[in-house]
Amino acid sequence: MKNLFFIFTLIMINFNQLFAQELNIYSHRQPFLINPFLEAFTSETGIKTNVVYSTKGLAQRLQAEGENSPADVILTVDIGRLYIYEDNNLLSAIKSEILNKNIPSHLRSPKGKWYGLSKRARVIVTSKERVDINKIKNIEDLANPEWKGRICSRPGSHVYNRALMSSIIAAHGIESAEKWAKSLVNNLARRPQGNDRAQVKAIFEGQCDISIINNYYFGKLKFSEDPIQREWAESVNLIFPNQGENERGAHVNISGGGVAKHSQNKEYAIKLLEFLSGQKAQNLYGEINFEYPANINIEPSDELKSWGVPREDKLPIIRIATLAPEAQKIIDRVGW
Ligand code: FE
How far away, in angstroms, is 120 Cα from ligand 1 center? Predict the structure, then answer.
């Protein structure tokens, strides 16, 4: 198996030397999400792409391959995952005026190692029937004892919730953040379980009244081919937290990418990231997956706008990653 893998790597390298206009992408993003982007890129530039897709283990693979790695570009979701690549010195620091112009500084690596390409907001969902939306404005409100036994949650240690926890540490400090988490756990209707969609289902079924999800899951349910999932979406209101004048804005996370440290095709790799930060690709993020453009000059899709567009927490996104170990400790201590 190892030999096969080695031969495969060698073939990829030779391919690159023969046909320089090809890019190898290691992707944690699902093929149906990135293929439309890559097709648009190829038709615009003539540069072909090969994708190695996996939900897990790509960073280890890149590390094991070392200088022989055929990878040119890494694409993934969540700053926590992106940062692992930087932390393990697997990314190349790049300079691009286009990327620096398109992507605001709080959504990219201070060293030019990775760039946010789309944004997703972590939002509150509440039962239309059983929760007065005027009673919940901020993520902090979920600690209110009024909601005892009424909140559902995915496990705290999932990256989405760990990132949210980091954002609360950044806003309030460790002690207050832990108090919040403890109160949230005290308010849970059931043991933390399931993914984001399962939380909306639980609200629909009356197991709880309030939860936290990434905004795009609302869109996926709303436009699901499964009529029952459309009913789940229909049963909830979306609340963008922390939107008040003196509030910090909703916590957002990113999908993003960087250039592999040992890429033999850095010029094209940068071209792909630039393309992904441009108008055509930025519109696709909204159309395909209900994500917000990371490019400050591009408006969200009409569908996203119809839900309301949240003001976002402008915390440098790298802080979400560097605070993750503290966040995880809190999550473990409170049993979220
Ligand atoms: Fe997701």
Answer: 9
Q: Which of 291, 219, 27 is nearest to 38 (CA)?
A: 27
What pLDDT, on a 0 to 100 scale, did the predictor assign at position 177?
Answer: 98
User: CA angle, corner 125, sides to 321 and 143, nearest 5?
Assistant: 70
* Gap between the Cα atoms of 239 and 211, Å rounded: 10
How many Å lie between the centroid of ligand 1 and the Cα of residue 63? Answer: 25
Distance 216 CA to ligand 1 centre (A): 8
Tell how far the Cα of 183 is from the centroid of ligand 1, in angstroms: 25
Is residue 248 a contact partner of residue 313, using CB atoms and an 8 Å limit?
Answer: yes
pLDDT digit string, tens, across residues 82-141:
999 999 999 999 999 999 999 999 999 999 999 999 999 999 999 999 999 999 999 999
- Residues 15 and 19: their CA atoms lie apart, in Å, by 6
| Residue 65 alpha carbon to ligand 1 centre in Å | 28
Q: How far, in Å, is the centroid of ligand 1 from the Cα of 19?
A: 35
Distance 239 CA to ligand 1 centre (A): 18
Q: What is the pTM of this model?
A: 0.91
CA of 29 to the centre of ligand 1 (A): 10
Lowest mean pLDDT among 6-10, 81-85, 230-234, 264-268: 6-10
Q: Tokens at residue 172, please?
A: 């309030």
CA of 130 to the centre of ligand 1 (A): 26
Amino acid at 317: I
* Cα(195) to centroid(ligand 1), Å: 9
- Per residue in 176-232, pLDDT (tens digit) is 999 999 999 999 999 999 999 999 999 999 999 999 999 999 999 999 999 999 999
In one letter, which amino acid is 149? G
CB distance 293 to 299 below 8 Å = yes
- Say if residues 236 and 200 touch (Cβ distance below 8 Å): yes
How far, in Å, from the CA of 7 to the mean position of ligand 1? 34
Distance of alpha carbon 94 from the chain centroid: 22
